[in-house]
Amino acid sequence: MKDEVCGNFVSFCRFITHSDEITHLYFARNEKINEVKRRRAQGKTFNSDSESSEGLDLEDVFKGHNVRYYNIAAEIAMWKLVKEQIKEMYDKFPTTLEQD
Prior knowledge:
The chain is mostly helical and 100 residues long. It has helices at 4-17, 23-41, 58-61, 72-91. The chain contains four helices and no strands.
């Protein structure tokens, strides 16, 4: 899970399956805003569209890529979605895993 792409994928799955109090998403957004401000203060460069050095656009700061684990029920819902999507894609293959 150290790979940024994988982490962003899992985070986005958490975002789209989110059904609890919206407060958690605001906390994640605020963490991202603070991270961007810290990086600016340290003179560090930005590596994605959501971290533009041209200005802090609050609409652009949080795009679901920084939602962290926050409770087991939400995590189970997220992994069920991932499993369902993988199964759906797997079932479209014309051959079985054994045949491959």
